[in-house]
Design a protein that fits this description.
- This protein is α+β, with helices and mostly antiparallel strands.
- The chain has two domains: about 60 residues; about 160 residues, Alpha-Beta Complex (Sulfite Oxidase, Chain A, domain 2).
- Helix content is about 25%, strand content about 20%.
- It contains eight helices and eleven strands.
- The chain has a five-stranded mixed beta sheet. It has a four-stranded antiparallel beta sheet with strand order 3-4-8-9, with no helix packed on it. Strands 7-10 form a two-stranded antiparallel ribbon.
Protein backbone atom coordinates (compact mmCIF):
# COMPACT_ATOMS: atom_id res chain seq x y z
CA UNK A 1 0.00 0.00 0.00
CA UNK A 2 1.43 3.36 -0.98
CA UNK A 3 1.68 6.06 1.62
CA UNK A 4 0.42 9.48 0.62
CA UNK A 5 2.69 12.25 1.82
CA UNK A 6 0.80 15.37 2.72
CA UNK A 7 2.16 18.43 0.97
CA UNK A 8 1.81 21.94 2.38
CA UNK A 9 -0.99 24.05 0.91
CA UNK A 10 0.04 26.75 -1.50
CA UNK A 11 -2.77 28.94 -0.20
CA UNK A 12 -2.89 28.32 3.57
CA UNK A 13 -0.79 30.83 5.48
CA UNK A 14 2.04 29.50 7.62
CA UNK A 15 1.17 32.01 10.32
CA UNK A 16 -1.98 33.91 11.19
CA UNK A 17 -2.64 37.36 9.81
CA UNK A 18 -1.93 40.27 12.13
CA UNK A 19 -5.43 41.65 12.76
CA UNK A 20 -4.07 45.11 13.64
CA UNK A 21 -2.49 45.33 10.19
CA UNK A 22 -5.80 44.49 8.54
CA UNK A 23 -7.45 47.21 10.63
CA UNK A 24 -4.83 49.74 9.52
CA UNK A 25 -5.53 48.94 5.87
CA UNK A 26 -9.29 49.35 6.20
CA UNK A 27 -9.16 53.02 5.22
CA UNK A 28 -7.38 52.09 1.99
CA UNK A 29 -9.99 49.46 1.16
CA UNK A 30 -12.87 51.86 1.90
CA UNK A 31 -11.25 54.51 -0.29
CA UNK A 32 -11.76 52.49 -3.46
CA UNK A 33 -14.17 53.92 -6.04
CA UNK A 34 -17.89 53.21 -6.46
CA UNK A 35 -17.17 49.78 -7.91
CA UNK A 36 -15.36 48.80 -4.76
CA UNK A 37 -17.85 46.16 -3.60
CA UNK A 38 -16.39 43.45 -5.82
CA UNK A 39 -12.90 44.87 -5.71
CA UNK A 40 -13.09 45.11 -1.93
CA UNK A 41 -13.82 41.41 -1.72
CA UNK A 42 -10.79 40.73 -3.86
CA UNK A 43 -8.73 43.11 -1.76
CA UNK A 44 -9.55 41.42 1.54
CA UNK A 45 -8.81 38.04 0.01
CA UNK A 46 -5.55 39.28 -1.38
CA UNK A 47 -4.56 40.80 1.95
CA UNK A 48 -4.75 37.41 3.64
CA UNK A 49 -2.67 35.83 0.90
CA UNK A 50 0.13 38.36 0.77
CA UNK A 51 3.23 37.10 2.54
CA UNK A 52 6.53 38.84 3.00
CA UNK A 53 5.11 42.36 2.61
CA UNK A 54 3.65 44.93 4.96
CA UNK A 55 0.01 45.30 3.93
CA UNK A 56 -0.18 48.60 5.80
CA UNK A 57 1.91 50.15 3.00
CA UNK A 58 -0.34 51.31 0.19
CA UNK A 59 2.16 50.66 -2.60
CA UNK A 60 2.78 47.10 -1.40
CA UNK A 61 -0.94 46.43 -1.31
CA UNK A 62 -1.44 47.87 -4.77
CA UNK A 63 1.45 45.84 -6.21
CA UNK A 64 -0.07 42.70 -4.75
CA UNK A 65 -3.52 43.52 -6.12
CA UNK A 66 -2.07 44.22 -9.56
CA UNK A 67 -0.35 40.84 -9.50
CA UNK A 68 -3.60 39.09 -8.53
CA UNK A 69 -5.49 41.01 -11.22
CA UNK A 70 -2.94 40.09 -13.89
CA UNK A 71 -3.13 36.44 -12.86
CA UNK A 72 -6.92 36.61 -13.04
CA UNK A 73 -6.74 38.09 -16.56
CA UNK A 74 -4.43 35.30 -17.70
CA UNK A 75 -6.70 32.59 -16.29
CA UNK A 76 -9.79 34.10 -17.93
CA UNK A 77 -8.01 34.33 -21.28
CA UNK A 78 -6.88 30.70 -21.01
CA UNK A 79 -10.38 29.35 -20.39
CA UNK A 80 -12.15 31.64 -22.87
CA UNK A 81 -14.33 29.73 -25.35
CA UNK A 82 -14.34 31.70 -28.63
CA UNK A 83 -17.38 29.95 -30.10
CA UNK A 84 -19.51 29.62 -26.98
CA UNK A 85 -22.75 31.60 -27.41
CA UNK A 86 -24.52 33.42 -24.61
CA UNK A 87 -28.22 32.96 -23.99
CA UNK A 88 -30.51 35.25 -25.98
CA UNK A 89 -33.98 36.52 -25.06
CA UNK A 90 -37.26 37.61 -26.63
CA UNK A 91 -38.16 41.20 -27.60
CA UNK A 92 -40.88 41.21 -24.91
CA UNK A 93 -38.16 41.04 -22.24
CA UNK A 94 -36.24 44.08 -23.47
CA UNK A 95 -35.95 47.01 -21.03
CA UNK A 96 -36.86 50.34 -22.64
CA UNK A 97 -35.04 52.63 -22.36
CA UNK A 98 -31.84 50.88 -21.29
CA UNK A 99 -30.34 51.71 -17.94
CA UNK A 100 -27.92 54.64 -18.09
CA UNK A 101 -24.42 54.03 -16.79
CA UNK A 102 -21.15 55.90 -17.30
CA UNK A 103 -18.10 56.75 -15.24
CA UNK A 104 -19.33 60.34 -14.74
CA UNK A 105 -22.64 59.18 -13.21
CA UNK A 106 -25.07 61.92 -14.35
CA UNK A 107 -26.96 61.67 -17.62
CA UNK A 108 -26.84 65.47 -17.84
CA UNK A 109 -23.06 65.27 -18.25
CA UNK A 110 -23.28 63.47 -21.60
CA UNK A 111 -21.84 65.62 -24.38
CA UNK A 112 -24.10 65.29 -27.44
CA UNK A 113 -22.37 64.24 -30.67
CA UNK A 114 -23.16 65.80 -34.03
CA UNK A 115 -23.89 62.73 -36.12
CA UNK A 116 -23.59 64.63 -39.41
CA UNK A 117 -19.95 65.53 -38.79
CA UNK A 118 -18.92 62.53 -36.67
CA UNK A 119 -16.43 60.11 -38.21
CA UNK A 120 -14.96 56.84 -37.00
CA UNK A 121 -11.17 57.09 -37.28
CA UNK A 122 -9.07 53.96 -37.81
CA UNK A 123 -5.45 53.34 -36.79
CA UNK A 124 -2.85 50.68 -36.23
CA UNK A 125 -2.66 47.33 -38.00
CA UNK A 126 -5.38 48.15 -40.55
CA UNK A 127 -4.90 48.29 -44.32
CA UNK A 128 -7.76 50.65 -45.15
CA UNK A 129 -7.66 53.52 -42.64
CA UNK A 130 -10.21 55.73 -44.35
CA UNK A 131 -12.64 57.15 -41.77
CA UNK A 132 -16.28 56.08 -41.74
CA UNK A 133 -19.30 58.36 -41.43
CA UNK A 134 -22.36 57.34 -39.45
CA UNK A 135 -24.37 56.96 -42.66
CA UNK A 136 -21.78 54.58 -44.11
CA UNK A 137 -21.93 52.44 -40.98
CA UNK A 138 -25.75 52.42 -41.06
CA UNK A 139 -25.60 50.92 -44.57
CA UNK A 140 -23.63 47.86 -43.41
CA UNK A 141 -25.41 44.55 -42.71
CA UNK A 142 -26.75 44.47 -39.16
CA UNK A 143 -26.67 41.79 -36.50
CA UNK A 144 -29.17 41.90 -33.64
CA UNK A 145 -28.41 40.79 -30.10
CA UNK A 146 -31.04 40.46 -27.37
CA UNK A 147 -28.83 39.67 -24.43
CA UNK A 148 -28.26 40.31 -20.76
CA UNK A 149 -26.12 43.30 -19.85
CA UNK A 150 -24.21 42.45 -16.66
CA UNK A 151 -22.64 45.22 -14.58
CA UNK A 152 -19.75 44.68 -12.17
CA UNK A 153 -21.84 46.52 -9.56
CA UNK A 154 -24.28 43.61 -9.44
CA UNK A 155 -27.24 44.74 -11.55
CA UNK A 156 -28.32 43.58 -15.00
CA UNK A 157 -31.04 44.00 -17.62
CA UNK A 158 -32.09 42.54 -20.98
CA UNK A 159 -31.22 44.79 -23.91
CA UNK A 160 -31.65 44.69 -27.67
CA UNK A 161 -28.74 46.04 -29.70
CA UNK A 162 -28.04 45.90 -33.42
CA UNK A 163 -25.25 46.96 -35.75
CA UNK A 164 -22.42 45.54 -37.83
CA UNK A 165 -20.66 42.44 -36.54
CA UNK A 166 -17.21 43.52 -35.35
CA UNK A 167 -15.37 40.62 -36.97
CA UNK A 168 -17.03 41.39 -40.31
CA UNK A 169 -16.11 45.07 -39.97
CA UNK A 170 -12.49 44.33 -39.07
CA UNK A 171 -12.26 41.99 -42.05
CA UNK A 172 -13.77 44.63 -44.35
CA UNK A 173 -11.16 47.24 -43.40
CA UNK A 174 -8.26 44.81 -43.67
CA UNK A 175 -7.42 44.61 -39.98
CA UNK A 176 -4.77 42.15 -38.84
CA UNK A 177 -6.92 39.52 -37.12
CA UNK A 178 -3.82 37.93 -35.58
CA UNK A 179 -3.08 41.09 -33.59
CA UNK A 180 -3.58 41.01 -29.83
CA UNK A 181 -5.87 43.93 -29.05
CA UNK A 182 -8.64 46.16 -30.36
CA UNK A 183 -8.42 49.56 -28.70
CA UNK A 184 -11.31 52.06 -28.51
CA UNK A 185 -11.12 55.81 -27.99
CA UNK A 186 -14.40 57.50 -27.12
CA UNK A 187 -15.81 60.99 -27.45
CA UNK A 188 -15.52 61.65 -23.71
CA UNK A 189 -11.82 60.61 -23.83
CA UNK A 190 -12.76 57.29 -22.22
CA UNK A 191 -10.54 54.44 -23.43
CA UNK A 192 -11.12 50.71 -23.47
CA UNK A 193 -9.67 47.66 -25.20
CA UNK A 194 -10.51 43.99 -25.64
CA UNK A 195 -8.50 40.97 -26.67
CA UNK A 196 -8.74 39.96 -30.33
CA UNK A 197 -10.42 36.64 -29.51
CA UNK A 198 -13.29 38.51 -27.85
CA UNK A 199 -13.45 41.00 -30.72
CA UNK A 200 -13.89 38.10 -33.14
CA UNK A 201 -16.57 36.38 -31.05
CA UNK A 202 -19.82 35.83 -33.01
CA UNK A 203 -21.76 37.94 -30.47
CA UNK A 204 -19.57 41.04 -30.56
CA UNK A 205 -20.95 43.97 -32.57
CA UNK A 206 -20.58 47.69 -33.13
CA UNK A 207 -24.05 48.72 -32.04
CA UNK A 208 -25.76 51.70 -33.65
CA UNK A 209 -29.33 50.89 -32.58
CA UNK A 210 -31.24 49.92 -29.46
CA UNK A 211 -34.65 48.25 -29.72
CA UNK A 212 -34.75 49.00 -33.43
CA UNK A 213 -34.09 52.76 -33.13
CA UNK A 214 -30.87 54.73 -33.41
CA UNK A 215 -28.99 54.96 -30.13
CA UNK A 216 -29.87 58.00 -28.05
CA UNK A 217 -27.12 60.32 -26.83
CA UNK A 218 -26.94 58.91 -23.26
CA UNK A 219 -26.47 55.35 -24.48
CA UNK A 220 -23.54 55.68 -26.86
CA UNK A 221 -24.74 57.49 -30.00
CA UNK A 222 -23.71 57.04 -32.73
CA UNK A 223 -21.63 53.90 -32.08
CA UNK A 224 -20.81 51.68 -29.16
CA UNK A 225 -19.35 48.25 -28.50
CA UNK A 226 -21.73 45.49 -27.44
CA UNK A 227 -20.45 42.03 -26.63
CA UNK A 228 -21.79 39.08 -24.65
CA UNK A 229 -18.40 38.02 -23.36
CA UNK A 230 -17.49 41.04 -21.21
CA UNK A 231 -18.80 42.85 -18.18
CA UNK A 232 -20.66 46.08 -18.85
CA UNK A 233 -17.78 48.51 -18.32
CA UNK A 234 -15.85 46.94 -21.22
CA UNK A 235 -18.58 47.95 -23.70
CA UNK A 236 -17.23 51.31 -24.81
CA UNK A 237 -19.77 54.01 -25.74
CA UNK A 238 -19.51 57.07 -28.02
CA UNK A 239 -16.67 55.45 -29.97
CA UNK A 240 -14.72 57.83 -32.22
CA UNK A 241 -11.63 55.75 -33.04
CA UNK A 242 -10.60 52.10 -33.29
CA UNK A 243 -7.00 50.89 -33.27
CA UNK A 244 -5.77 47.36 -33.87
CA UNK A 245 -2.48 46.80 -32.09
CA UNK A 246 -0.07 44.35 -30.47
CA UNK A 247 0.82 46.87 -27.78
CA UNK A 248 -1.08 46.79 -24.51
CA UNK A 249 -2.00 50.19 -23.10
CA UNK A 250 -3.82 50.69 -19.80
CA UNK A 251 -7.42 51.80 -20.23
CA UNK A 252 -9.63 54.03 -18.11
CA UNK A 253 -10.94 51.30 -15.82
CA UNK A 254 -7.77 49.21 -15.73
CA UNK A 255 -6.02 52.30 -14.36
CA UNK A 256 -8.62 52.36 -11.59
CA UNK A 257 -7.76 48.80 -10.65
CA UNK A 258 -10.51 46.89 -12.46
CA UNK A 259 -9.66 43.59 -14.14
CA UNK A 260 -8.75 44.27 -17.75
CA UNK A 261 -10.08 41.00 -19.25
CA UNK A 262 -13.40 41.21 -17.37
CA UNK A 263 -14.88 38.12 -19.00
CA UNK A 264 -18.28 36.58 -18.27
Amino acid sequence: MSIRIRTPSLIRLRKSVDRTVLKESRALVEDFNRRGVLRGALTLGALTMLTGCDVSEEESVQNGLRAVSSWNDAVQAAIFRPDHLARTFSPSQVVKPPRFNAYFHAIEDVRPINGTTWKLELAGLIKDKRPWTAQQIYQLPEQELIIRHICVEGWDYIGQWSGPNLRAFLTRIGADLTAKYVYFICNDDFTESIDMASALHPQTILASKYAGALLADPFGYPLRLRTTVKLGYKNAKWIRAIEVTNTFRPTFWSKQGENWFAGI
